[in-house]
């Protein structure tokens, strides 16, 4: 072949093509990290860890040193509450689980730890106060199903007990936020009649009517600054024929 200029002949050298590159050995390729969890697995593990942390917190809350002396003692009837309230949010913000050792009390601080002893059988249970109730005259505590079984109250439904306050997160004899609860009423209309009447009577109070999971209706009156003394005064003034009146602590 002639070059483009100069007229000299240029021989072509047939250079053999380079050999093809060998595929890298599988031993030299980093293996995928099979131990790394998928996002779904990581989420499940995180949820499991959180549940375990909450279970540990509950267990610690019920761990009472031996020989602890009660802060106060109360005697009265205990009952228990279950299915209609199960998986609903309680007064402390937690979802109520009737299979955990918890209870409802009207005036003890939420988070208090108490021992409830069946005076007939001697069986007892130690529970956290997580909810408000019972709103039945003559009863002082409502146990979860699990606690009622421990204290041998489940089948009887109601039993006379001794309630010993073992620990409270805040002082229980002063302070706190207070209200009164009135009822129960058979329907919403009856509750609203009372609520409207109390709203006119106590102009600075917040009056709310609301239904319960079992179908009855209640009226709650929150006085100015949720003051206990004022709530007690309203409770005394409201005793005349407007339904059963209960003093209740909100915190």
Question: Overall pLDDT, averaged?
Answer: 83
What shape does the CA trace take?
globular
- Element-level helix/strand string: HEEEEEHEEHEEHE
List low-pLDDT spans: 1-16, 21-32
Note down, in words, how this protein is organized:
There is one protein chain. The chain contains four helices and ten strands. The strands form two sheets. The chain has a six-stranded mixed barrel with strand order 1-5-2-4-3-6. It has a four-stranded antiparallel beta sheet with strand order 8-9-7-10. The N terminus is likely disordered. β8 and β9 form a beta hairpin. It is α+β, with helices and mostly antiparallel strands and 251 residues long. The N and C termini lie far apart (101 Å). The radius of gyration is 35 Å and the shape is globular.
Summarize the structure.
21% of the residues lie in helices and 26% in strands. With 251 residues, it is α+β, with helices and mostly antiparallel strands.
Secondary-structure blueprint:
Layout: H1 39-61, E1 72-80, E2 102-104, E3 113-118, E4 124-131, E5 139-143, H2 145-150, E6 159-167, E7 178-185, H3 188-201, E8 206-211, E9 217-222, H4 228-237, E10 244-249
Parallel strand pairs: 1-5, 2-4
Antiparallel strand pairs: 1-6, 2-5, 3-4, 3-6, 7-9, 7-10, 8-9
């Amino acid at each position: 072949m002639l070059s483009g200029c100069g007229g000299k002949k240029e021989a072509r050298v047939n250079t053999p093509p380079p050999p093809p590159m060998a595929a890298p050995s599988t031993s030299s390729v980093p293996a995928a990290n099979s131990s790394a969890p998928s996002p779904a697995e990581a989420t499940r593990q995180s949820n499991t860890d959180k549940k375990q942390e909450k279970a540990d917190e509950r267990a610690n809350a019920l761990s009472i040193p031996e020989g602890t002396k009660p802060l106060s003692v109360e005697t009265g009837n205990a009952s228990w509450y279950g299915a209609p309230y199960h998986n609903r949010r309680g007064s402390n913000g937690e979802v109520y689980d009737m299979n955990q050792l918890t209870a409802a009390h009207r005036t003890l601080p939420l988070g208090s730890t108490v021992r409830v002893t069946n005076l007939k059988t001697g069986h007892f249970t130690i529970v956290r106060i997580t909810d408000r109730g019972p709103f039945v005259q003559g009863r002082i505590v409502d146990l979860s199903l699990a606690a009622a079984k421990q204290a041998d109250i489940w089948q009887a439904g109601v039993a006379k007990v001794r309630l010993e306050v073992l620990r409270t997160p805040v002082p229980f004899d002063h302070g706190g936020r207070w209200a009164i609860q009135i009822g129960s009423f058979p329907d919403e209309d009856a509750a609203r009649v009372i609520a409207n009447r109390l709203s006119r009577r106590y102009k600075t109070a917040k009056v709310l009517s609301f239904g319960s999971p079992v179908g009855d209706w209640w009226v709650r009156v929150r006085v100015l600054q949720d003051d206990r003394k004022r709530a007690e005064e309203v409770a005394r003034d409201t005793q005349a024929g407007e339904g059963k009146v209960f003093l209740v602590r909100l915190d």
